[in-house]
């Protein structure tokens, strides 16, 4: 804790409270001699304009897109290179100050909350694309480079980076949370697409997880340090560079929408399409409540019934084969005729409706808040868990439109609730616990892509078991013996 400015408060075990940022006194306390000494040391490294203590900027960096309460850090730093990050981390290590990495703030599990105060490392000024190898299909970027910025940079190369979590997150932040998204069924998640990471540890040591400058497509050399840090959520180190795989832009893309008479029919189609070996790029499920919300929010007219959004990538000939097989499967399950989107503008409009699902759900109940669940199960269990979850929502009078990347078994209920209604808050809390444990009972996980953060630590223990948690804690203790890296998250 930095001078006792931000004491930890108790959270609900899974569903956080909906409260605004609390005010922290910055006047006399922030001017105290101890803080000034540390701030002076920070400024000697990165300059006065890169060390901010104002309440507004601290609150901005104490909250992400989740419903977890804002926990501002005591200082926000804006380093410009890995050397500055390392030097600043050494100061924090010497003074026992917690370190919280911050990318774009688009996380969904409270990962940037400064539970014990401390120092936020905002990495937005490190925004360079450093090393593009077109012939090798890889690129190295700094943590301020976002997914959209990278693809804009690649626009004239014939390459793209397909991992798409919806938000315009930073690539290093996506690595830190092992992000995923709509294209994961074909292109994988961050875990499959990161080749190397540069990481600054708690004591300022700089580590290259696959060796400095290395970028092989595969390796059998030593422990897999890269995937140790992918998904570590800032609890083991600060990711300052990531080298990721790139892909050729497909010759052709076609999107389609197909409605179904039931949830079971839609999800059965998903499983059968994948079992048929169709290399589909995206296959997204929206239940009737979610499609109704999208219709209203985006002025669309899709049938209000369980719906699949699909996208096919490849050559013109391969697309014809993919589409024919998919149509046969969907029709066998009672699906409607496809509504096609072939040109880029129509496809973008279709997928914008899918990406706007969060805002469409919120519009169902103006003035309410939203909380996104996130579970993933083996494909064979997907129909059962979606059907049971739908029944649970209806029985407990909850608004929770379902949308998900069902091609890899991952789906979300966007819970829309009145935070001032204690009964509804409690019912949502109990529902999310049941949903997570339902996934665990089906050999799945409590989080497919959002991460553990604050709210799912107890569920992680249930999922992994005590022995695995002890092993994780041992790794944490070895790399961060003072527990300075994003304390209170994951473990």
How big a fraction of the residues is strand? 15-25%
What's the total count of β strands? Answer: 19
Distance from N terminus to C terminus (CA atoms, Å) equals 18 Å
Helix percent band: 25-40%
User: Over all CA atoms, what is the radius of gyration?
Assistant: 23 Å
Q: Give the biggest beta sheet.
A: 8 strands, antiparallel
Runs in which pLDDT lies below 50 for 5 or more consecutive residues are 1-31
Gross geometry: globular
Helix-strand makeup class: alpha+beta
How many H/I helices?
17
| Mean pLDDT figure | 91
List the helices and strands and how they pair.
Elements: H1 33-46, E1 51-52, H2 55-60, E2 75-77, H3 82-94, E3 99-102, E4 119-122, E5 129-133, E6 138-141, H4 147-153, E7 159-160, H5 171-177, H6 184-187, H7 190-193, E8 194-200, E9 206-208, H8 225-229, E10 238-245, E11 247-248, E12 252-259, H9 263-275, E13 282-286, H10 288-298, E14 307-314, H11 316-332, E15 339-341, H12 344-355, H13 357-363, E16 369-372, E17 375-376, H14 382-395, E18 402-405, E19 410-417, H15 422-441, H16 457-464, H17 466-479
Parallel strand pairs: 2-4, 3-4
Antiparallel strand pairs: 1-2, 5-6, 6-10, 7-11, 8-9, 8-10, 12-14, 12-15, 13-14, 13-18, 16-19, 17-19, 18-19
């Amino acid at each position: 804790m930095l001078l006792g400015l931000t004491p930890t408060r108790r959270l609900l075990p899974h569903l956080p409270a909906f409260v605004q940022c609390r005010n922290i006194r910055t006047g006399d306390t922030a001017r105290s001699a101890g803080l000034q000494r540390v701030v002076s040391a920070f400024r000697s490294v990165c300059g006065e304009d890169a060390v901010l203590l104002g309440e507004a900027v601290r609150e901005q960096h104490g909250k992400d897109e989740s419903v977890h309460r804002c926990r501002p850090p005591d200082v926000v730093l804006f380093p410009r290179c890995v050397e500055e990050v390392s030097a600043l981390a050494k100061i924090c290590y010497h003074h026992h100050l917690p370190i919280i990495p911050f990318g774009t703030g688009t996380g969904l599990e409270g990962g940037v909350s400064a539970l014990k105060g401390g120092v936020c490392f905002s990495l937005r000024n490190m925004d360079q694309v450093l090393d593009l190898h077109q012939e090798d299909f890889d690129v190295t970027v700094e943590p301020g480079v976002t997914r959209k910025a990278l693809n804009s940079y690649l626009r004239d190369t014939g390459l793209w980076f397909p991992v798409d979590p919806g938000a315009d997150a930073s690539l290093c932040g996506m690595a830190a949370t092992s992000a995923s998204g709509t294209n994961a069924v074909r292109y994988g998640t961050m875990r499959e697409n990161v080749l190397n990471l540069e990481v600054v540890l708690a004591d300022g040591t700089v580590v290259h997880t696959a060796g400095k400058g290395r970028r092989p497509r595969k390796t059998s050399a030593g422990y897999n340090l890269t995937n140790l840090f992918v998904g570590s959520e800032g609890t083991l180190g600060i990711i300052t560079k990531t080298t990721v795989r790139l892909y050729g832009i497909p010759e052709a893309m076609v999107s389609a929408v197909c409605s179904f008479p039931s949830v079971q029919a839609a999800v059965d189609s998903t499983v059968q399409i994948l079992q048929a070996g169709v290399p589909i790029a995206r296959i997204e499920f929206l239940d009737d409540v979610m499609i109704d919300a999208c219709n209203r929010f985006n002025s669309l007219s899709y049938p209000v019934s369980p719906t699949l959004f699909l996208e096919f990538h490849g050559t013109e000939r391969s697309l014809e084969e993919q589409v024919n097989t998919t149509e046969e499967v969907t029709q066998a399950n009672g699906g409607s005729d496809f509504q096609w989107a072939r040109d880029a503008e129509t496809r973008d409009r279709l997928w914008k409706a899918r990406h706007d699902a969060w805002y469409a759900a919120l519009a169902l109940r103006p003035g309410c808040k939203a909380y996104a669940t996130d579970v993933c199960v083996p494909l064979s269990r997907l129909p059962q868990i979606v059907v049971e979850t739908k029944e649970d929502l209806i029985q407990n009078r909850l608004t929770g439109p379902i949308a998900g990347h069902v091609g890899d078994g991952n789906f979300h209920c966007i819970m829309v609730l009145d935070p001032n209604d204690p009964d509804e808050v409690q019912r949502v809390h109990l529902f999310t616990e049941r949903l997570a444990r339902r996934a665990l009972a089906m050999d799945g996980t409590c989080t497919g892509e959002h991460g553990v953060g604050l709210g799912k630590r107890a569920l992680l223990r249930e999922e992994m078991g005590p022995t695995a948690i002890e092993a994780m804690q041992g790794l944490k203790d070895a790399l961060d013996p003072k527990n300075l890296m994003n304390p209170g998250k994951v473990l």
